[in-house]
Design brief:
Order of helices and strands: HHHHHHEEEEEEEEHHEEEEE
Number of helices: 8
Radius of gyration: 33 Å
Shape: elongated
Low-confidence stretches: 1-37, 256-260
Helix content: 25-40%
Distance between the termini: 114 Å
Length: about 325
């Protein structure tokens, strides 16, 4: 009997490997390929700070926990930018440079035309799904500022959790920022009323009477000031609208009854400021008389008057 040497068939594993090479793809479960490891906390923090340096809101949002990311994306653009500025202590967007210290730790520089910040990472401390990274930031004339960033593992990736002792709670922070913005706009409205009142007094002293409208107080042409263009306030105030508030001006006629023995009261003025968009540009409305007495209240966007609560210097 004769035996033929039958060729040996390649094993199943070899055939699969050959198919992978020819097709250019292969399932990890068949080929034993490993997925890329998730980035470590220091790399995640570096990415977040780089995005903040560049004022890249979309990338910065990816560095936040899911709840914070959703709240951050819902913020107005200026507030998103303001938060990123706080992380790198710079007003302008810049470019980042990554390097390593002599001990092998990350050093991140954020360079702008006017200033550069350098952030020196310390040793990462891991606590199960939490990571804490101390950081030193040298500031000219102020020494070195030290702060610790906290990160939490979410969905297999490291996300920003805290800055120093402050938990990064953007939904709550957004409410605080909204109130702070409203307070600032109301303060601006009061300052604008007082600026207009001062301009009215200057106009009366210069031309002997109150102007018929705020427009007469506005910017003067190159030829010089005149009763029609006194150059005492800017164009926005002269148009009666600035910083989200509408400003109204009225002349109060002279009063008093001579026949009844009352002394004649001179002609005066009153000013009122109300939010152009109630709840967004402000909540309180204000009333200012020519004696400098200020009143204000939440009028749901309506006009304030002299019957509203008086606002003293400490409240302005």
């Amino acid at each position: 009997m004769k035996f033929r040497n039958r060729p040996r068939r390649p094993s199943r594993r070899i055939r699969i490997a050959a198919f992978c090479l020819l097709a250019g793809v292969c399932l990890p479960s068949l080929a034993g390929a490993q997925q890329p490891a998730a980035e470590g906390p220091a790399t995640a923090l570096s990415s977040a700070l780089s995005a903040a340096c560049k004022q890249d809101a979309a990338t910065f949002a990816d560095a936040l926990t899911s709840d914070n990311a959703a709240a951050y994306r819902a913020l107005p653009g200026p507030q998103r930018t303001a938060l990123m500025k706080r992380f790198v202590l710079l007003d302008e967007p810049g470019r980042t440079l990554l390097s390593s210290s002599a001990s092998g730790r990350t050093v991140l520089r954020c360079e702008t035309p006017g200033f550069t910040t350098e952030m020196r990472f310390g040793e990462t401390r891991l606590r199960e799904n939490l990571a804490f990274i101390p950081m030193d930031i040298p500031l000219p004339g102020e020494g070195t500022r030290s702060i610790t960033f906290g990160l939490v593992r979410e969905g297999g990736n490291w996300k920003l959790l805290s800055v120093g002792l402050i938990l990064l709670d953007i939904p709550s922070m957004a409410k605080q920022w909204e109130q702070a913005d409203l307070d600032a706009r109301e303060d601006n409205a009061i300052a604008n009323l007082r600026a207009v009142a001062a301009a009215l007094e200057t106009y009366r002293r210069a031309y002997g009477d109150w102007p018929e409208s705020l427009a007469l107080l506005g910017p003067a042409p190159p030829g010089g000031v005149s009763p029609q263009a006194a150059g005492l306030i800017d164009a926005d105030l002269a148009a009666g609208a600035k910083d989200g508030y509408a400003i109204r001006y009225s002349i109060v006629p002279a009063g008093g009854n001579a026949a009844a023995g009352e002394s004649s009261k001179p002609e005066t003025f009153v000013l009122a400021a109300s939010p152009g968009e109630y709840g967004k540009s402000g909540r309180r409305s204000f009333f200012l008389d020519s004696a400098g007495v200020l009143h204000g209240a939440d009028k749901q966007g309506g006009l304030a008057n002299s019957a509203d609560p008086r606002i003293g210097p400490a409240e302005q």
